[in-house]
Amino acid sequence: MISLLLIQMATTKVPEVRDITRIERIGAHSHIRGLGLDDALEPRQVSQGMVGQLASRRAAGVILEMIKDGHIAGRAVLIAGQPGTGKTAIAMGIAQSLGPDTPFTALAGSEIFSLEMSKTEALSQAFRKAIGVRIKEETEIIEGEVVEIQIDRPATGTGAKVGKLTLKTTEMETIYDLGNKMIDSLSKEKVQAGDVITIDKATGKITKLGRSFTRARDYDAMGAQTQFVQCPEGELQKRKEVVHTVSLHEIDVINSRTQGFLALFSGDTGEIKSEVREQINAKVCEWREEGKAEIIPGVLFIDEVHMLDMECFSFLNRALESDLSPVLIMATNRGITRIRGTNYQSPHGIPIDLLDRLLIIATSPYTEKETKQILKIRCEEEDVELSEEAHTVLTRIGMETSLRYAIQLISTAGLVCRKRKGTEVQVEDIKRVYSLFLDEARSSQYMKEYQDSFLFNETQTAAMDTS
Amino acid sequence: MAVQSWSDVLKSSKKTALIHDGKRKIHYLFTDGKEMAEEYDLKTDELIVRKWRHKSTLGVQGSWLLEVGESLAGPVASLESDMIKENSSNPVFMRKDTKTSFQWRIRNLSYPKDVFSVSLDHSERCIIIKTSNKKYYKKFNIPDLDRSQLPLDDSALSFTHANNTLIVSYKKPEEILTFEQELLKELKKLKGSAEGDVDCKTQ
């Protein structure tokens, strides 16, 4: 019995201290870091993860400049093109080049259809999320030099960690108790004794200002970029004015919450009354005139815009006329099709009156050389090594089937290659996954041949309504 | 906005009084949206608590900030324990007035008396407590004097140290004394709702 206990104790491993530095997963567009333009807005052939599409990228660059200027409100842009020609990539490129301070809200056309919220409410919320207000606010901060950090992890490995942090200024010293969240962010920032830090008391955000001058002579390995700063003076807790950007939607939510204890039960925001919105608009305009706040029009990106219906389009028409309106970027891959909610046909499934207000950017299919380049970039992004022949084969597959299918094959072929303990993906690996996974054309072919043996084949005559 | 005297501001505010738990509780709602709450002892008429609350620029409801009195650190504190809070071994600063003087008590200060030095800073209108061993430092103003725009007087300031507590006193000037008496008279005229539970409106 005792020995069993011992074994159990031995097997309860001390859980690994997980690295809290952000791990990003690789998404379909995570290789895009910008639009890949030079200072004269001329597109480079391959840059920042973008390949080809020179004309549309140049057009997007012009739009980008307009957004950065921030003077023009309520413009709308439509990116139209076949599937897999980089529409979303261009939008992502714009988002990346705008930087973190300009709000960029992305949603898909189908996201607004919810039973809890009307379509127009969802759209207005999206519009207001894309408008930023830069405003000064007073917050309480703690600023001091770290004397000591002490973090106790419980011996069992689970349960709350407890920590103490001693901070000092030239005049005083205080000990703080740390909560779990605080301990995590302190270890993430790699704060150690001798650092001068500020902590925002409300949000718990930690900023490292540098190392204290008194530690300049420590025989420590220090990077060249280590900055030395004076130990702060006076009190540890100070009130400071900080500038931060909030979206109009966030201000709406703050002011529409049920007050008091009822706020505890109303987790979701639900619909926001139009009176609240009007009040906020008036207040923001007042702040702007007083110089207290600055309005930053951002970007609202609606992907798959043909999924919107007639009511949404007429709402967009109206919303674009407001002076508190962001730049609207839409993307669609439809040609002339039925406008949802009507029986009329229209280009891109968008009514003519809205189309008339749009600047349209077209994307064209990639050439073979560009496809090869994109596949190369994706290989780097997904950490898969490809032999020259395999690369050529994959490019052929990409040209004959679709770019998306070829990209899907990269990681699967990589896995197959790793299973046979290879280091570089060969033509065999590509062949293997090509035979394992059907592309769209082969799948349709297969369906045509074998549809009789599938379940429910008697309903085959009912045409699928996709619009 | 013209400089309005503090008594006028008080008069224009919306006041609600309540007698409960042996205390006269008064809630002021000012025209700019700020709120102030005071609690007076019914027997001695001493001010026990005065606290403020106001909304931030964005409209977030702030929490009560104590000007006078002791905070009731209860189980609420553990709710926010995810963040950072001062260790209980740190000095605790609070204001507790007497009839004739403003008084601040800083508990948990176990250093000898000669470590402390208390002085007035006229340019910033505040009192500064310093320690020669660099363990404690505090800068604070006297809101009552600021509100009534009265000058600071060096001779009114004194401090003592006993039982690990530093007590800083500032003698109330004549103007404040008369103002407080008048205010108390006014407040007693306010009809406080009866003792006991008040009807609480439920939704």
Q: Can you walk through the features of this model?
A:
With 467 residues, chain A is an alpha/beta fold. In chain A, 35% of the residues lie in helices and 22% in strands. In chain A, β1 (46-47) and β2 (50-51) form a beta hairpin. Chain A starts with a helix and ends in a 17-residue tail after the last helix. In chain B, β12 and β13 (165-171) form a beta hairpin. Chain B is built from 4 helices and 13 strands. Chain B is globular, with a radius of gyration of 19 Å. Chain B has 203 residues and is α+β, with helices and mostly antiparallel strands. Classes of the chains: A alpha/beta (467), B alpha+beta (203). The A-B interface holds A 135-138, 142, 164-165, 168-182, 199, 201, 204, 234-235, 246, 250-251, 254-255, 259, 262, 287, 292 and B 56-61, 80-90, 130-131, 134-139, 203. β7 of chain A pairs antiparallel with β6 (84-86) of chain B.
Distance between the termini of chain A: 68 Å
User: Which sequence of strands runs across the widest sheet of chain B?
Assistant: 1-2-3-4-5
Low-confidence stretches of chain A: 1-23, 260-264
Count of separate structural domains of chain A: 3
Unreliable runs of chain B, pLDDT <50, ≥5 residues? 75-79
Strand content range of chain A: 15-25%
**Outline of chain B:** globular
What share of residues of chain A is helical?
25-40%
Secondary-structure topology with pairs:
The complex is a heterodimer of chains A (467) and B (203).
Chain A: H1 2-11, E1 46-47, E2 50-51, H2 54-69, E3 76-80, H3 87-98, E4 104-108, H4 119-129, E5 131-152, E6 162-168, E7 173-178, H5 180-188, E8 195-200, E9 206-212, E10 228-229, E11 237-247, H6 248-256, H7 274-290, E12 293-297, E13 299-303, H8 310-319, E14 327-332, E15 336-338, E16 345-347, H9 352-355, E17 358-362, H10 368-382, H11 388-400, H12 403-419, H13 427-436, H14 440-450
Parallel strand pairs in A: 3-14, 3-17, 4-13, 9-10, 13-14
Antiparallel strand pairs in A: 1-2, 5-6, 5-8, 5-11, 5-12, 6-7, 8-9, 15-16
Helix pairs in contact in A: 2-3, 4-8, 6-7, 10-11, 10-12, 11-12, 11-13, 12-13
Chain B: H1 6-12, E1 14-20, E2 23-29, E3 35-41, E4 47-53, E5 65-68, H2 76-79, E6 84-86, E7 92-95, E8 101-107, E9 116-121, E10 126-131, E11 137-140, H3 143-148, E12 157-162, E13 165-171, H4 174-189
Antiparallel strand pairs in B: 1-2, 2-3, 3-4, 4-5, 7-8, 8-13, 9-10, 10-11, 12-13
